[in-house]
Structures are given as C-alpha cells and as structure tokens.
Amino acid sequence: MPFLKAVIKETLRLYPVVPGNGRFVSEDEVVVGNYWFPKKTPFHLCHYSLCHDEDQFEDAELFKPERWLRGDSSRSKSTTGSYNHHPYSFIPFGLGVRGCIGKRVAEMEMYFALSRLMQKFEVQPEPGAPVVEPKTRTLLIPGKPINLRFLPRA
C-alpha cells in the first residue's frame, strides 16, 4: 500500500486537479521577504508551477513515486524518499480552513478503487496512443481523450 499511495501522490503532484487557487490578505498588511502587501491584496498560488519547480522537487518533470516513500533500513539511499521539498509545495487538496473537506474520502476512494483495479486488471494504454498533455480549464483536464485497455489478470 505505501507504493500505491506514493504513485497517487506523484500523479497529483504532476497533474493537480486544481492547478491553482486564490486568497486575499484579509486582516492586516503582510510583508513577505522584502515585499509589502496591503490589506485586501489578492494572491494566486499556482500549484502546477510549484509542483514542477526543480528547486522543490529534484527531476520535477519525471514521474518518480519513490520520492514519497519514507526510508527504512531495507531500502538503499538511491530509492529512499527524501522529503526535501517545502511542506507547502505540494497541497493538492488545499490546506487549513479552506482546504477540501472531502480530502480523506477522496484519498480512500482512490486507494480502494486503484488497488481493486490493479488486482483484477492489467491496465495498458491504447496501442499507438499519443502523449496526452494537460489543459487548464479551471480544473486540469486531459488535452485529448485517454483510452486505456483493461486486460483481466489470470
């Protein structure tokens, strides 16, 4: 189950459903670094860009679920997850009081559905299928249809 969870996290890192969100400075002015922002300043956080930032994730454009695995004595250094990124560089469900209220349910549904599918089927892309690039339409969606083949396992 740890590897399945790592695969889901890595997929959400590369292709966040909600690629960004906005917030207002509500109560008081804020100073970030050397920049001053007055009350009611709108901010937009682009999760997609942050999750593809090489400063946050080594080999950011590569699908590497092992980056999310916690190390133990049975793993070599080369496969152990590092958690070297900033804790707010990966927040696919948001955070705090405005975070997704259904986060835990969504995670459990993904774990359950994918584990059952993988037990019963081998999933393959359609032969000759093109690489599908994401498009932003408020949500991140596939730019082309994704066709998969579900082959029953013996």
TrEMBL record:
<dbReference type="GO" id="GO:0005743">
    <property type="term" value="C:mitochondrial inner membrane"/>
</dbReference>
<dbReference type="GO" id="GO:0005506">
    <property type="term" value="F:iron ion binding"/>
</dbReference>
<comment type="pathway">
    <text>Lipid metabolism; C21-steroid hormone metabolism.</text>
</comment>
<keyword id="KW-0503">Monooxygenase</keyword>
<keyword id="KW-0443">Lipid metabolism</keyword>
<dbReference type="InterPro" id="IPR017972">
    <property type="entry name" value="Cyt_P450_CS"/>
</dbReference>
<dbReference type="GO" id="GO:0008203">
    <property type="term" value="P:cholesterol metabolic process"/>
</dbReference>
<dbReference type="GO" id="GO:0006704">
    <property type="term" value="P:glucocorticoid biosynthetic process"/>
</dbReference>
<comment type="similarity">
    <text>Belongs to the cytochrome P450 family.</text>
</comment>
<protein>
    <recommendedName>
        <fullName>Cholesterol side-chain cleavage enzyme, mitochondrial</fullName>
        <ecNumber>1.14.15.6</ecNumber>
    </recommendedName>
</protein>
<keyword id="KW-1207">Sterol metabolism</keyword>
<dbReference type="InterPro" id="IPR050479">
    <property type="entry name" value="CYP11_CYP27_families"/>
</dbReference>
<keyword id="KW-0479">Metal-binding</keyword>
<keyword id="KW-0560">Oxidoreductase</keyword>
<dbReference type="InterPro" id="IPR036396">
    <property type="entry name" value="Cyt_P450_sf"/>
</dbReference>
<dbReference type="GO" id="GO:0020037">
    <property type="term" value="F:heme binding"/>
</dbReference>
<keyword id="KW-0755">Steroidogenesis</keyword>
<comment type="function">
    <text>A cytochrome P450 monooxygenase that catalyzes the side-chain hydroxylation and cleavage of cholesterol to pregnenolone, the precursor of most steroid hormones. Catalyzes three sequential oxidation reactions of cholesterol, namely the hydroxylation at C22 followed with the hydroxylation at C20 to yield 20R,22R-hydroxycholesterol that is further cleaved between C20 and C22 to yield the C21-steroid pregnenolone and 4-methylpentanal. Mechanistically, uses molecular oxygen inserting one oxygen atom into a substrate and reducing the second into a water molecule.</text>
</comment>
<dbReference type="GO" id="GO:0034650">
    <property type="term" value="P:cortisol metabolic process"/>
</dbReference>
<keyword id="KW-0153">Cholesterol metabolism</keyword>
<keyword id="KW-0809">Transit peptide</keyword>
<dbReference type="InterPro" id="IPR001128">
    <property type="entry name" value="Cyt_P450"/>
</dbReference>
<dbReference type="GO" id="GO:0006700">
    <property type="term" value="P:C21-steroid hormone biosynthetic process"/>
</dbReference>
<keyword id="KW-0349">Heme</keyword>
<dbReference type="GO" id="GO:0071375">
    <property type="term" value="P:cellular response to peptide hormone stimulus"/>
</dbReference>
<dbReference type="InterPro" id="IPR002401">
    <property type="entry name" value="Cyt_P450_E_grp-I"/>
</dbReference>
<keyword id="KW-0496">Mitochondrion</keyword>
<dbReference type="GO" id="GO:0008386">
    <property type="term" value="F:cholesterol monooxygenase (side-chain-cleaving) activity"/>
</dbReference>
<keyword id="KW-0472">Membrane</keyword>
<keyword id="KW-0408">Iron</keyword>
<feature type="binding site" description="axial binding residue">
    <location>
        <position position="100"/>
    </location>
    <ligand>
        <name>heme</name>
    </ligand>
</feature>
<keyword id="KW-0753">Steroid metabolism</keyword>
<keyword id="KW-0999">Mitochondrion inner membrane</keyword>
<dbReference type="Pfam" id="PF00067">
    <property type="entry name" value="p450"/>
</dbReference>
